[in-house]
Amino acid sequence: MAKAGHVYPQVDPGAAALMDRRIARGAASLSAGAAHAAATRAGAHALALGPRVAVRHAELARAVRWGLPGLRALEMAWHELPEVTPATSEIAVRRLVLAGAGLILVRHGGHIVGFVDGRAATWARPALSVAHRLENPPDAGRETVVWLLRLAGKLGEAMGVAVWAAGGFVRDLLRDTGPLDVDLVVEGDGPAFARRLAEEVRGGVTVHPAFGTAAVEGGRTVDGQALPRVDVASARRERYAAPGALPSVEPAPLGEDLLRRDFSVNAMAIALGPAVFGRLVDVAGGQRDLDRRSLVPLHPLSFVEDPTRVFRAARYAARLGFGLDAAGRRALRLALGARAYPALSGQRLTAELALILREPTAWGALALLLRWRALGLWDRAYRARPRTQERLRAARRLLAWARAADLGVEPLDVALLALLVDQPPMVARRCLQRLALGGARGAGLAAAPAAGRRLAARLAAPRLAPSRVAAAARESSVETMVAAWLLGAGRSRRRLQWYLREGRHAQPAMTAAQLIAAGVPRGPEVGQWLRSLRDLGLDGRVGNLADEERFVKRQMARHLKGEPK
To answer: Which of 121, 140, 196, 488 has its CA 20 to 30 A from that of 324?
Structure first.
């Protein structure tokens, strides 16, 4: 029995009780295959490759399983790792884990004697509350979201499942930006929870059973206020059979679900249960990286595992004003240095590009992809040319006035042409094929750069009549005109802009019926007369219906006399 007033010593097991002793040393020059073999022989779960550098055996095993034994083990390693001694307190070790340390090395007497796995999902983490951020909303829209979150927590409790707000919702809440997209994670049957939520808010539900996800739309509060779309997912782990393949999924606890995500700033969650509402779970140092404005992938093979994360990185970096940290840059180099990704579909790559182009900061994201040399994921021979960034700026201007003029130009096509017009034709064609852009659309985009150069040169000629400008543009495809605008200089751009805004709409004042009444024979000749009158109007030689009627009358009279028209 405890004695009143007696002081009992608190036993701190220290790092020695937390560490895994199965670590060996390896040369920094080892390939992934050789490092995997060395770690396997030693029965090691990690391999120290140099000062404050180590690689997990599990990550080496994945590289070998994926057919990538030639990757450099050093590029797959965790760098700048914190070091502690076996006597370091458990609290100090936990603080390092909470700061986002993926691995912690334990050193004793000048030797590495173990490591602590900071990415183990079993770590118990303190529950910092961010309820105050939710309960003091700056606007009415946030109040509606809070009502929805509390409802979700109560429904989860009634169903016996834990419900969390996660991902971008938490990131943007901590940044105090909006609007907040509501993403929920359920430790249980996500689609079943989504159906129950849809019933409660009188909304519609769409279920994707293969991934354990669902979306609730069109819901309303009890007093009739519209609710935002809610995306619901079952907490899951993912396994990738090959780099770039769609993952297989299976249920998992929240911690594993968060650690399967792309970046630490997207790997946070907020509890919604009534008794724990607002408690934050941060498994990978996301708060720290928000403060640092850094995008940090959750493990070194993140971009190899799913190369579409490279495009997401550019999208988030441009939107948030963040940058890749050193670990992110190493992960990027690793992904770009790997062989092609046959399991990665072109449709997924194109979808990521389309998502980028929906962003207000789209052109900044594309510029980042060029700077990172990430379009080598489309084709290894792709090289950003000195003028490619200029082409992107031109494409942005083109789309701005194209939207204002309601031209219906596809942003995806404009962006692709800006990125491809300076590439060798074979490289451009292979990029389009890799993006699964085939058929007439792919053929039009592939042919556009060469045709655009010819059109730009033609439109740059001095003293070119407006009707000749219109004729040159009229016989060109939209893709060709876009390419010509991107490749051309001031005069050809101005002429194309004039044609697309005004010249293409030009029509004669006289109708076919009026021409026939004036003596023009029925048939193809009527069309020829209409086109002639249109061109005369473009060149300013006729200005109204009366001018056209006089011109037709004069030409018909000459024809009756046998003179050429």
So the answer is: 121
Measured distance CA(386)–CA(390) in Å, rounded: 8
Cα–Cα distance measured from residue 251 to residue 189, given in angstroms and rounded to the nearest whole number: 9
Using only the alpha carbons of the chain, give its radius of gyration: 32
Out of 2.30.30.60, 3.40.50.2300, 3.90.1150.10, 1.10.110.30, select the CATH number for domain 297-377: 1.10.110.30
CB atoms closer than 10 angstroms to residue 313 = 27
Burial class (CB in 10 A: 0-12, 13-18, 19+), 194: buried
Q: Residue 301's closest CA among 24, 26, 23, 32? A: 32
Domain ranges of the chain: 14-117, 128-292, 297-377, 381-505, 512-560
DSSP H or E run through 108: strand 103-108
Question: Phi first, then psi: what are they for 349, rounded to 5°?
Answer: -65, -45
Give the closest residue to 398 by CA, choosing from 409, 389, 388, 384.
Answer: 409
Residue 72 is predicted with a pLDDT of 93
Q: Is domain 381-505 given the CATH code 3.80.10 in the classification?
A: no
**Nearby residues of 516 by Cβ (< 8 Å), 6 or more positions away:** 522, 526
CA distances from 348 to 125, 199, 309, 341 (A): 35, 33, 11, 12
The CA distance from 424 to 291, in Å, is 43
CA distance 119 to 557: 91
What is the C-alpha to C-alpha distance for residues 497 and 195, in angstroms, rounded to an integer? Answer: 51
| Residue where the block lists tokens 């404009």 | 414
Distance of alpha carbon 90 from alpha carbon 146, whole angstroms = 36
Q: What is the pLDDT of residue 310?
A: 98
| Token code pair at residue 460 | 């740059």
Its sign, for the CA torsion 390, 392, 393, 394, is: positive
In what order do the strands lie in the sheet containing 279-282? 128-129, 279-282, 268-271, 163-166, 182-186, 230-234, 213-217, 204-208
> Looking up tokens 């009627």, which residue turns up?
549
Residue 558 CB neighbours (<10 A): 12
* pLDDT tens digit sequence for 297-306: 999 999 999 9
Give me the CATH topology for the region 14-117.
Answer: CBS-domain (3.10.580)
**What is the spatial distance between Cα 298 and Cα 267, in angstroms, rounded to a whole number?**
9
Q: Compute the distance between CA of residue 246 and CA of residue 512 in angstroms, rounded to an integer.
A: 59
Closest by Cα among 505, 499, 494, 509 to 468: 499
Q: Look at residues 269, 262, 248, 249 and name the one whose alpha carbon lies nearest to residue 162.
A: 269
Task: Kindly report whether the global pTM for this prediction surpasses the value 0.85.
Answer: yes
In the three-class reduction of DSSP (H, G, I as helix; E, B as strand; rest coil), residue 220 is classed as strand
d(CA 473, CA 41) in angstroms, rounded, equals 69
Q: What is the pLDDT of residues 243-290, one digit of tens each?
A: 999 999 899 999 999 999 999 999 999 999 999 999 999 988 899 999
For domain 128-292, the CATH class is alpha beta
Cα–Cα distance measured from residue 269 to residue 267, given in angstroms and rounded to the nearest whole number = 7
The token pair that represents 554 in the structure block: 């004069």
**Helix, strand or coil, per DSSP, at residue 24:** strand
